[in-house]
Amino acid sequence: QVTLRESGPALVKPTQTLTLTxxxxxxxxxxxxxxxxxxxxxxxxxxxxxxxxxxxxxxxxRTSLKTRLTISKDTSKNQVVLTMTSxxxxxxxxxxxxxxxxxxxxxxYWGQGTLVTxxx
Amino acid sequence: DIQMTQSPSSLxxxxxxxxTITCRASQGISNSLAWYHQKPGTAPKLLLYAxxxxxxxxxxxxxxxxxxxxxxxxxxxxxxxxFATYYCQQYxxxxxxxxxxxxxxIK
Lengths: 120, 107
Hints:
The complex is a heterodimer of chains A (120) and B (107).
Chain A: E1 3-7, E2 11-12, E3 18-25, E4 34-41, E5 48-54, E6 59-61, E7 69-74, E8 79-84, E9 93-101, E10 104-110, E11 114-118
Parallel strand pairs in A: 2-11
Antiparallel strand pairs in A: 1-3, 3-8, 4-5, 4-9, 5-6, 7-8, 9-10, 9-11
Chain B: E1 4-7, E2 10-13, E3 19-25, E4 33-38, E5 45-49, E6 53-54, E7 62-67, E8 70-75, E9 85-90, E10 97-98, E11 102-106
Parallel strand pairs in B: 2-11
Antiparallel strand pairs in B: 1-3, 3-8, 4-5, 4-9, 5-6, 7-8, 9-10, 9-11
């Protein structure tokens, strides 16, 4: 059974760095063809893709946020970590991690999401 | 970046209706398109991928079609559990992009 769970702070201050962890089970990111991605959704708005890491450690980022995002994996812990620097109130959103396939980047299993509010 | 334009942004329908949602890409995406739906407070759920392939466990009343830049999601015999927001997503290339969503509401 595949599961993913996001964890991290619910509240961050402007200019701070956000660190989110996706802990998953039921698959391995050391398996050829797997990937994990981060997607966010501001309140009442559409989904926004942020970053993706493949099983072979290839990484991809949203163009407009490329300088602020870092994605990494720890295969021994079954975790993927996303860091986002210089947080701003416009970054307030529910952040989801999900699983996909490096040959076709659609996503079949999702975490429940974690709401991050950026406010002083 | 490939822009995905969904239409309409919202629609009202009744149980049993046929509903069609369109997604247009700013360039050809070779059927590299997925559809999701999302209910309030929950994560999106994958419905179809490769434009027309039904994800395991998804009812056959959901169908997808299209090619090139234009794609369609059709729901026949709309059920109460289908009232949700629908999103398309292209995976032809990075950065991956989603459409703006279509909210299907009860008439």
